[in-house]
Amino acid sequence: MVMDMNEINQFFEHRQVQLGMNFGLSRMETLLDKLGNPHEGLTYIHIAGSNGKGSTLHFIKEILLAEGVRVASFTSPYLIRLNEQLKIDREEISDKDFVSEFLELWPIVKEMDSEGNGPTQFEILTAMAFSYFSKKGVELVLLETGLGGRLDTTNVIQPLLSIITSISLEHTNILGDTLGEIASEKAGIIKSGAPIISGVTAEEPANVIEEKAASVGVPYYQIGKDIHVQAIKQNKLGQSFSFSFQDTSIENIEMHMLGAHQIENAAMAIAAVTMVRNNIHEKSIRKGIAEAQWNGRFEKISESPLIIIDGAHNPAGIEVLLDTLKTRYPEYAYKFIFSSFRDKDYAKMLSLLEKEASEITVTEFKHERAAEAEMLYEHCSKEKRSLEEDWRKAITIGEEKTGDKEVLIITGSLYFLSLARGFVISDRPL
Q1: What is the pLDDT of residues 57-114, one digit of tens each?
Q2: CA–CA separation, 348 vs 344, rounded Å?
Q3: Which of 153, 233, 296, 386 is the most exposed, having the fewest neighbouring CB atoms within 10 Å of its CB?
Q4: Closest C-alpha to 193, from 347, 46, 49
Q5: With the C-alpha atoms ordered 125, 128, 133, 136, is the resulting torsion angle positive or negative?
Q6: Is residue 235 part of a domain?
Q7: Does residue 430 register a pLDDT over 50?
Q8: How far apart are CA 3 and CA 102, in angstroms?
Q9: How many other CB atoms are there within 10 angstroms of residue 286's CB atom?
Q10: Does 324 share its domain with 384?
Q11: How confident is the model over 373-394, as pLDDT tens digits?
Q12: Which among 269, 291, 313 is the end of a domain?
């Protein structure tokens, strides 16, 4: 059987619809065992959280690359194509290697399917990442959870260090109805022998994480308590801050990524690299933080008209987006194009946007989990609102009607952003 990337993409799309999200580690453990347990013998930093996982991972990666470390990363979801979820240094897995890894797993997948224990799309992809990284001889793997922590597919590894970036109400049907319950699920990545860094400061979830760390006897370090940021300044190209943690203090660290949340993500990243690499050079930290960019996270994709895309996909993300807008563009009117998955709290997200928006356009995209535009419209009470089912038309109209001192923001779903980003920049240089 010969497969190419197009056929594999189609297989994964069908698999996602067919099996969806099916949590638990038994299938993953079986799949890896049949594959020869390629995840064993690799060194990991494991990252969970409601928001900020990808940005924190990216900061860590850029610092380590500046230090000359060969580092692999597994992230989700992707913005442009599947390959970007598996990277070594900054290079995506090639189509040739992707197909090769998939074909190696294919007989095992068929065998497990025949036994009624078929692995999900994400389990197959995660196993491919482990196999690929083990063959390439990387020094460190930066591993991002898919959803939750305790029962997440990635939680089969023994990490060197764990990070929980943030906790907010999300996937309550799976993770729990309170911040404490969600924190308990995400704290499932905390394991004996691996210290934990946390960006969670709200009392209830922070206590849960700290108690889990104590129960397995590992050091616990928290933003604001052990990891400190100060002297935050905004400038034309980005922002700067000073950092301190244990014996490390660095002043005036420049960065291009925007938002107070990104400063906290950067601080967790700096703390992480100082813990896993002895005597890391300050110049590597400065270079890594300054050069880090993460597409889809408050990313300006057009100057005229001014268009920003942001991967806010839950209420906490929307709050951060609005705060960043008010910091960077305080005198502008905010025009939003919004679409969401129907299993997200889109009603709350819309209610937050309504408070700051000059107008809101709701739209929809093709996906089995996507919310219908009409449904979103019914939950939007902004007087100046509109419905356009065709997301391409919604963006085109939005571009045409965005004038001076106005910013068009496309948000609500990372999957939607993957479509919108390519559409907007197709006729513009990045």
Answers
A1: 999 999 999 999 999 999 988 888 899 999 999 999 999 999 999 999 999 999 999 9
A2: 9
A3: 233
A4: 46
A5: negative
A6: yes
A7: no
A8: 9
A9: 18
A10: yes
A11: 999 999 999 989 999 999 999 9
A12: 291
